[in-house]
Amino acid sequence: MRYLFSTGLFAAITTGYSLLRGTRETPITWRAVLAWLSWGITLALAIGAVVDTRREERGVPVAADSPLAAVQDKHARRQAKAVKMAAKATSR
Question: Most exposed: 9, 24, 37, 68, by fewest CB within 10 Å?
């Protein structure tokens, strides 16, 4: 439920509602089609961000093009360094 109220998803949903109200009784033009296409892309990106956030919190790998991939890589490097240091300390 907390992901439903993320900023990007909330903005996409409210924008879609406004777009629906604005285009309900007007004829379909190329501008309206572009507006709906733009809204669909925005909604898809917002949902993708929520999915990536949830995966990152659970420790599941995210796609390499995700902004959270750098965070996961950083955590993995820190963990590898800690394991290496622990192995080095126990071998003495």
Answer: 24
Single-letter residue type at 69? A
Tens of pLDDT, residues 48-71:
888 888 888 887 888 888 878 888
pLDDT band at 14 (very low <50, low <70, confident <90, very high): very high
CA dihedral over 2, 6, 60, 42, signed as positive or negative: positive
Q: Specify the DSSP element, H or E, that contains 23.
A: helix 7-23
CB 32 within 8 A of CB 26: yes
Backbone angles phi, psi at 3, to 5 degrees: -75, -25
